[in-house]
Amino acid sequence: MTTINSTPVTANRKLLNWVEEIVQLCQPAAVHWCDGTQQEYDALCELMVKGGTFTRLDGKLRPGSFLVRSHASDVARVENRTYICSPNKDDAGPTNNWADPVEMRKKLKELFKGCMKGRTLYVIPFAMGPLDSPLCRIGVEITDSPYVVVNMRIMARMGRVVLDKLGAKGEFISCLHSVGAPLQPGQQDVPWPCEPDVSRKHIVHFTEDLSIWSYGSGYGGNALLGKKCLALRIASLMARKEGWFAEHMLVLCLTSPQGKKYYLAAAFPSACGKTNLAMMQPTLPGWTLRCLGDDIAWIRLGADGRLYAMNPETGFFGVAPGTSNKTNPNAVATVARNSIFTNVVLRSDGDVWWEDMGVPPPEKGMDWEGREWTPGCGRKGAHPNARFTAPAAQCPAIDPDWENPQGVPLSAILFGGRRPSTIPLVNEAFSWEHGVFLGSAAGSETTSAALHQAGVLRRDPFAMLPFCGYHIGDYFAHWLALARRTDRAKLPRIFFVNWFRKSADGRWLWPGFGENSRVLKWICERIEGAGKAVRTPIGLLPAPDALDMKGLDISGADLAELLSLDVEGWKKEAADVGGNYQKFGERLPAELNKELQDLKARLNEEPTMDLGKASVR
After folding, report:
1. CATH number of the domain at 247-311+402-612, please?
2. Are 319 and 268 in contact (CB under 8 A)?
3. Which of 120, 121, 123 is nearest to 9 (CA)?
4. Contact predicate 302/315, CB 8 Å
């Protein structure tokens, strides 16, 4: 066997034995232990340039950056090929694809047998969270994809420092990945190797030994196993057992003109503006926003009884189409250098372009499939799920505390979704239990960037539908139990937001983006007990004059509709939530069923509209 950097710098016998076991199973041509250095990153990027996987972008227009095109069958997460393998099927719950762990291991070993022939096996030691954080967890990903290696270096702490942290006796989460495309002697490689048959792709999570096996895909959340697989599905299992929370949430810091800081976490389904909100530039004078993370939050209960949130990642893996100086100028600045672009347009000048980028399209270029492309040719240049990978440290709005090992204290948690009707712009939960109910009932209209049909309402509790590693009913109970573990007054306030409300004739009623700071300001005022609110059957809504609307050109009628209570619409919403609850069976916590019945009762009563400043807990 040819070896490259094959000498492991670790005395961890468990790790050494596991790597040797996988080498024997997968039969690679070479082994490379990743050290996480810039030199290694540069060498692997150059290797992929020579192999045709990477295209180096113009060094002046986009320094240190590359373009890659994936295979047409490998463009997004494959939820229907993602499995939770628990011994008891009921423990996986109705929202996960379950498979018997014994049968699945047998199946996977056949798939992985010899799957790395002709390729290099890379050993990637990585850490999620700052190395000195109480929530830091170490994983080791074995992969045959250099694309995975360089993306993992951006997205997680990686290399020699992680092995030093692991030590000789430390525990790690084993993550095995292969693109599933062995090379025979003399066979020419392709720019994006993968298993094109979707039915052979597998992203598998074993709950007993907390391990991950991923086969056939080289893309994103299917292959960067520190991201959705470890940081959410596996971490949610660990978090439940150990008393913390692994969440699909952004974390931001909003600072008032008086210098008061408010840390907020927000859970939105895909395509609902998480990254845009995480990096938003407020339009309100004197208010500033800083980003701590745009996708994942690990949250723990501090010794003082408050919740502390930490972003376990070190990069952004964001959707490119729609990212512009209008929607997210900080993201545009973040990807100006040292970034990897997947499935966007290559301009003739050596830069990249995508739909709704806010700049004119090139006269001609190469589309995401490598075909010549011109504006008006009848097809999109970038794939709707095209991505950028960029270091978080490059974000102009990154918060100084984004790598604080203790995390930051949360003042509020927001839920949201893409809802064209019924759901108001913002409402506040009456209590912790009501807030968990709002999160459990969250839904969003799907978009073309997802793998499912567009324009369909999908219930996505806590935005964790594809990411919770166990029964979602038990997950709700884990959140509800928090109120019994600390002083309720120290828990974050919970709100539900909807930037996507439309008028009867299809107009957006709210401008969104930086104007969302007006909603966040009211949330901060509620935290302080000063924001005026209206008590309604669904929660506390802003009073008619509560939002700061100075300088915003929006009609009184549109604002009234944004903050209105659609009683009949909410009756249908409650019925739909109840129908969704049925799938959870006896594992649905009684508290949530009570919240649903209480909501129905309030909706059937004459709505009371009591203006007041007093906060309701």
Report:
1. 3.90.228.20
2. no
3. 123
4. no
Q: Give the separation between CA 296 and CA 73, rounded to whole angstroms.
A: 26
| CB contact at 8 A, 419 and 443 | yes
Residue 607 has a pLDDT of 54
* CATH number for the domain running over 316-392: 2.170.8.10
Which amino acid does the sequence have at 336?
A
Structural contact between residues 453 and 258, judged by C-beta atoms closer than 8 angstroms: no
**Which amino acid makes up residue 93?**
G
The amino acid that residue 179 corresponds to is V
How far, in Å, CA of 236 to CA of 229, rounded?
Answer: 10
> Distance between alpha carbon 230 and the CA centroid of its chain, in Å?
12
Check: CB of residue 154 under 8 Å from CB of residue 45: no
**Rounded to whole angstroms, how far apart are CA atoms 6 and 210?**
26
Tell me the torsion sign for CA atoms 263, 401, 329, 269.
negative
Could you report the average pLDDT of every consecutive run of 10 residues in the chain (617 residues)? 67 97 98 97 98 97 98 94 97 97 98 98 98 98 98 97 97 98 96 95 98 97 97 98 98 98 96 94 98 98 98 97 96 98 97 97 97 95 97 98 98 97 97 98 74 74 97 98 97 98 95 97 97 97 96 95 96 97 97 98 73 36
Q: Does domain 13-33+78-242 fall into CATH 1.10.10.10?
A: no
Residues 556 and 560: their CA atoms lie apart, in Å, by 6
Q: Is 272 a catalytic residue?
A: yes
- Residue 567: other Cβ atoms inside 10 A: 15
Tokens of 553: 């050109």
Decide the pairing of beta strands 539-542 and 315-319: unpaired
pLDDT at site 614: 35
Residue 454 has what pLDDT? 60
Helical packing angle, 567-581 and 590-604, nearest 10°: 160
Residue with tokens 């007006």: 518
Any residues with CB less than 8 A from the CB of 553 and at least 6 apart, and which?
A: none
Per-residue confidence (pLDDT) for residue 271, from 0 to 100: 82
What is d(CA 522, CA 80) in angstroms, rounded to the nearest whole number? 40
Q: Where in the chain is the domain with CATH 3.90.228.20?
A: 247-311+402-612
- 553: how many CB neighbours lie within 10 A of its CB? 6
Q: What is the pLDDT of residue 606?
A: 61
Strand 297-301 relative to strand 387-391: parallel, antiparallel, unpaired? Answer: unpaired
The token pair that represents 406 in the structure block: 């203790």
pLDDT attached to residue 449: 42
Domain(s) labelled CATH 3.40.449.10 in the chain stretch across 13-33+78-242
Give the C-alpha separation, 85 to 103, whole Å: 10
Q: What are residue 495's DSSP bridge partners?
A: 414, 428
pLDDT in the model for residue 6: 73
- Which residue among 272, 291, 468, 524 is the active-site one? 272
At 616 the pLDDT is 36
Give every CB contact of residue 164 below 8 A, 6+ residues apart in sequence: none
**Count of alpha carbons within 13 angstroms of residue 394, beta-carbon side:** 19
